[in-house]
What does this fold into?
Amino acid sequence: MTTAGSDSGGIADGAGDETGQPAVADGLLLWLRADVGVTESNGAVSNWADQSGNHLDARQPDETQQPTWAAVGLSGHPAVMFNADDVLSLPSGFADFSRGVSLFAVTSIADVEPCVGLVHLSNGPEIDDIELGRYDGRGAYEVLEGVLSGADFPLGRPQLISVVHDAERNASMRFNGGGPASTMFDLPRMVTRRSNLVGRSQYANCGSVHGGLAEMLIYRRALDDAERARVEAQLQNRWACCR
It folds into this structure.
């Protein structure tokens, strides 16, 4: 067993920044990076360590549902690769988003599926949902009955997706730092979420990513425009993509 990014792991650090710090730390709830903290055996990933300090590690003890780690998985850099029924589970939590929500993901989806989830936080399908993914060829962010449909989400190319949902109910989605798609709906209600997945949606007829996930950040507040731009720039630089 090796841990990608550790002293014993065989991973180059070219995708990382010199400090190893997030561009914005305030309010960071979950931080997954494919170039550090990935525990794998023969390529199969059993644990993806949360780098935020909140210990919300993504885990999969079932070997039949473990994604794989690829040293050259996305833009020549590492990625956690999902296929078939691969999925990682997060611990209970993700309750208080009263100051807003900000989500960032660097991913590449390979196969045509009606809908896939990069992250799905809930208490079961359609219960207390917060989801970021792809639906009918476009980016999608959903909270309960509120849905933000973003720009076209092309297959087979790395994409940087960012969503900011503020306390005034404004939600916006950007791809690769471009112009936003926006709408308004309520923030997630305050409740502990116990069914939390990375790499798979819990909605009916939806599935796993069928592609790679290089990095994901979730904040328990709405980042302002300058902060959002700093996070996007760090991700674009780290993964050499998505401009």
